[in-house]
Amino acid sequence: MTKKIAVVAANGRVAGKVIEEAVSRGFDVTGFGRKANNTKAQHYVQKDLFDLTKEDLQGFDAVVDAAGAWTLDTMYVIPKAAIYLADLLKGTETRMVVVGGAGSLYINKEHTSTVELQPTFPDSYKPVSAAHGLALAELLSYADYAIAMVDEIEKGNHIQQRISVVRA
Questions:
Q1: How far is CA 89 from each of CA 56, 95, 100, 127, rounded to the nearest angstrom?
Q2: According to DSSP H, which parts of the chain are helical?
Q3: What gap in Å lies between CA 58 and CA 92, rounded to an integer?
Q4: What are the pLDDT digits (tens) for 135-162?
Q5: How much of the chain is helix, strand and coil, in % rounded to 5?
Q6: Residues 13-55: pLDDT tens digits?
Q7: Mapping DSSP to helix (H, G, I), strand (E, B) and coil, where does residue 33 land?
Q8: Would you say 100 and 66 are in contact if contact means Cβ atoms under 8 Å apart?
Q9: Which residue in 128, 126, 67 sits closest to 97, CA to CA?
Q10: pTM
C-alpha cells in the first residue's frame, strides 16, 4: 500500500526536498502552502497552515511540519505551528514529523549540553534554534508521559528499576 503523506509549508527549501524524495520513492504526497504551488507534490492545497482543519489532514500516514521562520518578528510561528498541528492530529493514528534544526541536539550522554550552547554555534542561528527548542518542549507533554507510564505498566520491562521518560 502506498504511503500517503502531507507536507505543511510545502514551498520551503527543506519541504521541497522532502517532497521530491518522497515522490521519487513512490509516496502519494500532498503539499499544503499559503502561496501558489512550487513543489513536485502530486496534490497541492493552497491554504494557510493555521486555517487547516482535522478534515484536511485525515487519511495521511504522516504529516510533515515544515513551518519555518527567519526573522525575530516571525519566530513565534515555529512552536505555534507544532502545537497547532499536534492538536489537529491528536487522537488519530497519523504520525507527525517536525522539520527542525540541529541546535537542540544533545552532544553528551547526560543530555545537559546541546549544539546551540557551543561557542562555535553562529549567533545568527540562535533565535531560530531557540524557537525550534520551544516547539520540541511543547511536543513532550503530560499526555506523552502518561503514555510512557502506561506502556511500562502494560509491558513491565523495568521491574525494580528506576526509569525516566525523555525525548528521543
A1: 10, 8, 19, 27
A2: 13-24, 77-89, 126-139, 142-155
A3: 9
A4: 777 767 656 666 766 677 678 787 777 6
A5: 35, 15, 50
A6: 889 999 999 999 999 999 999 999 999 999 999 999 999 999 9
A7: strand
A8: no
A9: 67
A10: 0.75
